[in-house]
Amino acid sequence: MKLSIIIPCYNAAEFIEQCLESVLPNAKSDVQIIIVNDGSTDNSSEIITDTTQRFPETNLIIINQDNAGLSAARNKGLSIATGEYISFLDSDDLYHRDFWSQIPPLLNDSSIDIIEFNADQFENDISNIVEHIDCAVYKDKEQIFASEQLKPAFQRCKWYPWARVYKKSLFLANGIEFPVGRLYEDMSTVPALYLKSKCIFGINKPLIWYRFHKKSITQTFRQNDLSDLVYVATQLSLLAKESPETKAILFPTVQRVFNLIKYMLIKNRQAIFSLQDQMQLRKALMPFIIEFRISRKIQILILPLYLSTVVRLRKK
């Protein structure tokens, strides 16, 4: 089996059929499809059954489990995948037709650890493209001999899990999985995979349609967002401790986390950022402090005072 495509689904009745129709007709005998129905309470399960029955020759596994979240669903799929390579497709997104002509031939080169590509974000219909998302920074095959070569990917900071195909051994050999119960799970997981990669293949064209809709978890603030971002900063700090030479490379993602936290605090009047989380964030940022400009260094050093000022000004 060359490729396992993992499709988590939670209450995606409106979109799952279109998603599956971008996969099932194109999946050859060496492609495995794993659909993880993560406790859907709508009729997603029935749609999955009806749609997949139209493609009886497909290598297909359907898992029905209690709701455990996106990361747990991906991890579940990963745990039973038999493909040499793994891809993740969200239930409201779909593959370009070009995915099937571009990706499978590359999977015969087992030296490639990650294949990265771009995406088109659309709203309502794929004819309505609202943004081109450039995730691929490399051109064709790039052998990685030093972490410095990874700098372009970390500077771009587009860590969407679905914008890549991964060698499964990257996860298994390094004990990498998605953090269960966390949002922003991509911002710590995908960088860890890149740091372990020895060969990356870049395709500078969109191979996936990424759906924008108002129900998306990225469009609404949840109180847990703040603690989940602190978790990301902590994981990035641990990666830097593991390989000190990667501090400068990890810095753009760390800075993005810090900026996101400040943005959420300013934008959302109901946001509460506990002192414990603030101190944990400061601890996670300290290994990178030399990379910040002077004004940010001061903000980090006096973080609780600085953030309480941000909140006070927000209320005014």
Q: How many strand segments? A: 10
Portion in beta strands: 15-25%
* Uncertain spans: none
What's the helix-strand series?
EHEHEHEEHEEEHEHHEHHHHH
CATH class of the largest domain: Alpha Beta
Q: Report the biggest beta sheet as strand number plus sense, adding barrel if it closes.
A: 10 strands, mixed
- CATH homologous superfamily annotation of the largest domain: Spore Coat Polysaccharide Biosynthesis Protein SpsA, Chain A
CATH topology of the largest domain: Spore Coat Polysaccharide Biosynthesis Protein SpsA, Chain A
Number of helices: 12
How large, in whole angstroms, is the Cα Rg? 20 Å
Helix proportion range: 40-55%
Structural class by secondary-structure content: alpha/beta
Residue-averaged pLDDT: 94
Overall description:
The chain is α/β, with parallel strands linked by helices. It has helices at 16-21, 44-52, 70-80, 98-106, 151-156, 168-174, 186-195, 224-242, 247-267, 275-285, 294-301, 303-315; strands at residues 3-9, 31-38, 59-65, 85-88, 94-95, 114-123, 125-133, 140-143, 164-167, 199-212. It has two domains: 3-218, Spore Coat Polysaccharide Biosynthesis Protein SpsA, Chain A, CATH 3.90.550; 221-315, no CATH class. It is built from twelve helices and ten strands. Strands 1, 2, 3, 4, 5, 6, 7, 8, 9 and 10 form a ten-stranded mixed sheet that branches. A hairpin with a 1-residue loop joins strand 6 and strand 7.
